[in-house]
Amino acid sequence: MRQASTVKRTTLKTSTPKNRVEIPLPSTTCSKEDLYQKIAEKAYQLYVARGYADGYDVEDWAKAEKIVKGA
């Protein structure tokens, strides 16, 4: 089974026999503050889903980063 590519492209390249066209793709980046907020919200959701069990904050944060960043 092939694994999906993790390379992010900023343009879409298509070819025709006579010319090549590059189409810009919309940016999917966000500010550091927005990224931090999204990770914090997801980590809290994981905490709630665990039944508010303490002691898993680092694990929740790491998992939330993976989910939010799509890693």
Provide a descriptive summary of the structure in words:
This protein has 71 residues and is of the alpha+beta class. It has a domain of 43 residues. The chain is 44% helix and 14% strand. The chain is built from 2 helices and 2 strands; from the N terminus they run ββαα. The protein has a two-stranded antiparallel ribbon with strand order 1-2. A hairpin with a 4-residue loop joins strand 1 and strand 2. Helix 1 crosses helix 2. The longest helix is centred in the middle third of the chain and has 18 residues. The chain starts with 10 loop residues before the first strand and ends with a helix. The model has no long low-confidence stretch (mean pLDDT 77).
Structural class: alpha+beta
How does the overall form come out from the CA principal axes? elongated
Largest sheet: 2 strands, antiparallel
Order of helices and strands: EEHH
Descriptors for this entry?
alpha+beta; 71 residues; 2 strands; two-stranded antiparallel ribbon
Can you lay out the helices and strands and say which pair or pack?
Elements (H helix, E strand, L loop, with lengths): L10 E5 L4 E5 L7 H18 L7 H13 L2
Antiparallel strand pairs: 1-2
Summary?
The chain is α+β, with helices and mostly antiparallel strands. It is built from two helices and two strands; from the N terminus they run E-E-H-H. The chain has a domain of 43 residues.
